[in-house]
Amino acid sequence: MKKWWIRAGMVALALVLAGCGIRIAGDQIGTGRDLGVAASRTLLTAEELATGPGAGEPVDNAAFLPVMGAEAPAHTFEGRLELIGEETVGELRVVRGDPDVEPTVSHLPDFDFEYVQDGDDLIPVRRGMIITEHPNWNYLLEPGRAWSEPGDGGWSRASLPFSLVWKGSNAVFNGLMTFVFNDAEVSGVWYQVTQETTVSLGADLWGWVEAEYHPGGVTDAAEIRRAFADEVAHRFPSRPIGDLAEVYPGADPQAFGVGVSNMTWYGFVVDGVQYLGGCETRTGPYPYCESMRAASYSTAKSAFVSLALMRLAQKYGSEVPLLLIKDYVPEASASPGDWSEVTFDNTLDMATGNFRTAEYMVDEESWDTDPFWSEEYYDEIIAAAFDWPHSAPPGTQWVYRTSDTFIVTGALANFLKSVEGPDADIFEFTVEEIYQPINLSPGAQTVLRTRDDNWQGRPYGGLGMWWVPDDLAKISTFLNVDAGRIDGVQVLEPGILAAALQRDPADRGVQVSGNRRYNNAFWGARYPSDFGCDIWVPHMLGYSGIVVALFPNGTSYYYASDGQDFTWEAALRESDGIVPLCPDG
């Protein structure tokens, strides 16, 4: 696989809740104990996990859930789970895209990680992106669960969600693993990966691998349990999408998720609750919908880089967007273009004036000729990002390029170092100042970086984050309802935010076409008469089919998919029926 991956990449949730055991716990979606998915286990029995199942392909996801009558786990898992011989095990079936992938793609990276248990929750000690030595894959680990079943001979059983992330890319593949264990041993582990968010490749991976349990005390285990309990307590209140009609009589839940192929999940946020749908895989509903990761792609431009600029401007002065790129990114001096008057704001707006053609997305999609998409180290990437001729005055012509976002991310990073010291990191700044206070998930608190220092170099900015539904519910509410305030304190510079959200008629941004604008890395679409008044819908977009639409009535609609479908008109109209979009509606 080459780095072109960087551009690539249900049954109603009520069925998941009823048939797979997700339960409403207060205002949260949690995992139930007595799930009633089957009277007895026929898939991945304890005997099969001990010796290797006869299954020659992925099994139904119900096999990763308790059977009817399951009880609390009889044992406590605390220590390391180590898989043995991953490099020799694994099957691969390409269901979409080029089947000629490297043989190593079918093998998991080395897996040797600590977990702690809290009741029936099984919590990985390491969260967020885990860089591995595998040539293709990195890991994202999520909390799973443990329980006991009558047919397991006194052993306890566990299942764990995890994600594989293509190295140097945003593409993410969601999987599950399961095993039985006691106080000293584990069986072998069955794993399967049957869902992804990426355009170029759809693939199933599966296998049975031997494993070893290394029981023992985990450092800071009590704090890990406390942090996870706090994470769960701060999840956004959630209900299945089908409940929308019960809460708002006459509402049509089927207006959400419509027109989108290869859906990962979707949500509608109204009155402080998100209504969730999707979470399907090729082997049935994903049992851990709350932990199902999707790639951000270019929604990171808005949710990371733009928010970082707004926070810097609020903290250090509203003149920050007017600073010049050339004063903070020295590589600009080698550019064939003209960066003498290009500001941070121009660059975030995709209006630097340095481009080859103004034809829609032509410069951006020069995948095979632009080294920005193939290089991996900062020096080569930044050189490619600046390798564009001068073609127009800054601020006058919109030409979309992720490489421009890479430039402005570097400018923000160097400005931050100038005021907070050489160890300051622009992504960690955003995590500490915004993401942690609004309680984004741990998996959203890491980012794709350049290959320098073992993939711990500069953040790309224009892509490279991984969302769960809870993250987008929180980000959209923070912007669309709370107006950039946290606990009543203004965190984002209000003028820049108002412009980004099309709430400043004097600053609509740069024209894309017709009724479309681009402002501070947010898209804007105008609906001049569709709803009885002139409305604008600001939104974030990601390449594979990621949408976060912030409706002007305070509701939001988001989804992740990999069919490159971008549509929200049906959701917008349904939202208008719940909360009028026009003030006199």
Name the features.
globular; about 20% helix; 8-stranded antiparallel barrel; 14 helices; alpha+beta; 9-stranded mixed beta sheet; about 575 residues
- Give the strand line-up of the largest sheet: 14-16-15-28-27-26-25-24-23
Span between termini: 52 Å
**Helical percent range?**
10-25%
Category from helices, strands and their pairing: alpha+beta
What best-fitting shape do the alpha-carbon axes yield? Answer: globular
Largest sheet: 9 strands, mixed
Mean pLDDT: 93
Contiguous low-pLDDT stretches (5 residues minimum) are 1-36
- Number of helical segments with 4 or more residues: 14
Précis, in short:
By secondary structure, the protein is an alpha+beta fold. Mean pLDDT is 93; it is low at 1-36.
Describe the structure.
Helix 6 packs parallel to helix 9 and helix 8 packs across helix 9. The N terminus is likely disordered. It is built from 14 helices and 28 strands. The protein is 22% helix and 25% strand. The protein has a nine-stranded mixed sheet with strand order 14-16-15-28-27-26-25-24-23. Strands 3-5-6-9-10-11-12-13 form an eight-stranded antiparallel β-barrel. It is globular. By secondary structure, it is an alpha+beta fold.
